[in-house]
Amino acid sequence: MSNFISTLIAGTLFGAVGLGAFGYGKKLRLWQPQVIGAGLMLIPFVIYNFWMLCGLCTGLLVLLWFYHDE
Fold this sequence. Notes:
mainly alpha, 3 helices
């Protein structure tokens, strides 16, 4: 039961960050943050393993760091 709760909390946090990244990309008309943000919002719906979810979403966050506009 605790694995389910952990996955639910991690999915919610990554989804919230994804929503922010998607809005950021839409505001600046950059397609890379939009795609990464959509991925962060959709991945928790398909990945149920906690460690795989955290690893994949952390990889997307690192990718988002390199594609943000300064």
